[in-house]
Amino acid sequence: MIRSVDAVERSVHKTNEWLSDLCDELDTDDREQAWRVLRAFLQLLRDQLTVDEAAQLAAQLTIIIRGVFYEGFDPGEQEKLRDRDEFLSRLAERAGVSEPAAAAEASSAVLRRHVTAGELDDVMSQLPSEVREVLLHR
Q1: What is the pTM of this model?
Q2: What's the whole-number average pLDDT of the chain?
Q3: CB–CB of 118/56 below 8 Å?
Q4: Residue 2 pLDDT more than 80?
Q5: Which residue among 18, 52, 60, 70 sits deepest, i.e. has the most Cβ atoms within 10 Å of its Cβ?
Q6: How far apart are CA 35 and CA 41, in angstroms?
Q7: Angle (deg, nearest 10), helices 5-26 and 31-48
Q8: Are the C-beta atoms of 18 and 62 separated by less than 8 Å?
Q9: Would the pLDDT of 138 be above 90?
Q10: Within the chain, what is the greatest distance between any pair of CA atoms?
Q11: Distance between CA atoms of residues 62 and 48, nearest Å
Q12: In a 3-state reduction of DSSP, which class is residue 97?
């Protein structure tokens, strides 16, 4: 429950920090591109997790990013991607990028900055090794 306008304003500020960080990682000024990449990455990541783990990760996201994380979520329809190429292909398609590996690495670097190390370890432990290697490439 959002208890105040101040909470919304803090969420906007923190979301802008995420986007600025991602723009830096992607070496772009295109915030729309960064938003598409972040949205696609988080939703693909969410679908690889158990419902409980997705909820634990979501608890560390801003209100706005949490909304995007859960947008269109149907636990009965999660698409589990078992290998690197599938994950990157879906990311390229959903984010509209031609270099999905760079987008995945950049997004995971930003995620590492904004969630606790323990939560990130829990998330990574649920991913297939090939997908985990792409996200931890840096």
Answers
A1: 0.92
A2: 92
A3: no
A4: no
A5: 18
A6: 10
A7: 100
A8: yes
A9: no
A10: 43
A11: 20
A12: coil
Residues 4-10: what's their mean pLDDT? 85
The position carrying tokens 């997908």 is 131
Residue 48, token pair as written in the block: 């690889």
Q: Which residue, among 51, 47, 55, has the nearest Cα to 79 in the 3D structure? A: 47
- Per-residue model confidence as pLDDT tens digits over 68-120: 999 999 888 888 888 899 999 999 999 999 999 999 999 999 999 999 999 99
Q: How far apart are CA 90 and CA 52, in angstroms?
A: 23
The DSSP code for 138 is -
Q: Which CATH superfamily is domain 5-135 in?
A: Uncharacterized conserved protein DUF2267 (1.10.490.110)
Measured between alpha carbons, how far apart are the two ends of the chain, in Å? 36
The dihedral through the CA atoms of 83, 98, 90, 57 has a sign that is positive
Q: Return the structure tokens found at 19.
A: 């986007």
Backbone angles phi, psi at 126, to 5 degrees: -90, -5
Task: Give CA–CA dist 83/81, Å, rounded.
Answer: 6
For 23-77, the pLDDT digits (tens) are 999 999 999 999 999 999 999 999 999 999 999 999 999 999 999 999 999 888 8
